[in-house]
From TrEMBL:
The lineage of its organism: Eukaryota, Fungi, Dikarya, Ascomycota, Pezizomycotina. Residues 144-307 form the Dyp-type peroxidase C-terminal domain. The keyword Oxidoreductase applies. GO terms for cellular component: cytosol. Belongs to the DyP-type peroxidase family. This is Dyp-type peroxidase. The keyword Lipoprotein does not apply.
Length: 316
């Protein structure tokens, strides 16, 4: 059977942009909340076009994710086979926290004002059917670096590997064309990070800081780098990629410096295994040392259904 998805997916593979807004909402208990949400999601493409037309060169896109707790009420469709709430992961020293969230809107373009306008129109449309859980505005930092100073996203798939890595296909036909999404909002201890020498930082990340050259893996059983712990293989030795569109965020005036992690995957277990290796360690006890300087404030899982499914919600 062909692995091609015969329906239209959302723009989960939209190009990297200079600005993004990550908007996480909860659905309220107001009488018409679900009806309003379904109508808004069904018309999200029209709303996006209304904003994108103002600058066709700005690469505007919005991806919608729906959480496990509201999937049945909002869609009325079979739940994707791997979709469940984000499970907290408790390591010996650090914990990946699980936080609420029913809807995710990943809004991005080359212009902050377009993202702002779309979010404003969206929230006007949703009204009291939703409550804002988290709103984070990200920006592209120099040559795609995070605020720790390293290039971020080098391991992303490219070309034909992108849809094969992020879009559900024949393994779950009801969810075909969709993608699992995990988000985490990290804040950095920049003061502590800056006490490390460049070589120590590079050993933690697994790449050189200046020119982004991949370092050799540590011997088996010794402390693994962030790069190594995020390399996932299945029982047959096949490596599985995810698509990251992480963005720095923060405010020097308030002392906030962070990275908003967002990962898209065809298989949710791949991201969850990454996080397990980071927080528990591989071998257990040797956690990802980046966690000594980056603390997660949120952790939520969503599923981005196909654009075809979104457009049909008004008629369900």
């Amino acid at each position: 059977m062909s692995g091609r998805v015969p329906i239209e997916s959302q723009r989960v593979d939209a190009p990297l942009t200079s600005s993004a807004t990550f908007l996480v909402l909860s659905v309220t208990e107001s009488p018409d909340a679900v009806k309003t949400v379904r109508s808004a999601l069904a018309n999200i493409d029209g709303l996006a076009k209304n904003v994108a037309i103002r600058d066709l060169g700005a690469s505007f896109a919005c991806t919608v994710g729906i959480g496990s707790d509201v999937w049945d009420r909002v869609t009325g469709l079979p739940k994707p086979s791997e979709l469940h709430p984000f499970p907290p992961i408790e390591g010996a020293k650090h914990t990946a926290v699980s936080t609420p969230g029913d809807l995710l809107f990943h809004i991005r373009s080359e212009r902050r004002d377009l993202n702002f306008e779309f979010e404003k129109q969206l929230l006007d449309l949703l009204g009291d059917s939703v409550k804002v859980v988290d709103e984070t505005v990200g920006f592209r930092y120099f040559d795609v670096r995070d605020l720790l100073g390293f290039v971020d996203g080098t391991a992303n798939p490219v070309g034909p590997a992108v849809p094969a890595s992020i879009l559900v296909a024949e393994e779950d036909t009801a969810a075909a064309g969709g993608s699992y999404i995990v988000v985490q909002k990290y804040v950095h201890d920049m003061k502590g990070w800056k006490t490390l020498k460049a070589e120590q930082q590079e050993a933690i990340i697994g790449r050189t800081k200046l020119d982004n050259v991949e370092l050799d893996d540590a011997p088996t059983g010794q402390q693994a780098s962030h790069k190594t712990l995020n390399t996932i293989e299945d029982e047959n030795g096949v490596e599985h990629d995810i698509l990251r569109d992480n963005m720095p965020f923060g405010s020097p005036g308030s002392g906030e410096f962070g990275t908003y992690f967002i990962g898209y995957s065809r298989r949710l277990w791949v991201i969850e295994k990454m996080l397990h290796r980071m927080y528990i360690g591989e071998p257990p006890g040797l956690h990802d040392r980046i966690l000594d300087y980056s603390k997660p404030l949120t952790g939520t899982t969503f599923f981005a259904p196909s654009a075809s499914i979104l457009a049909s919600l008004d008629s369900n």
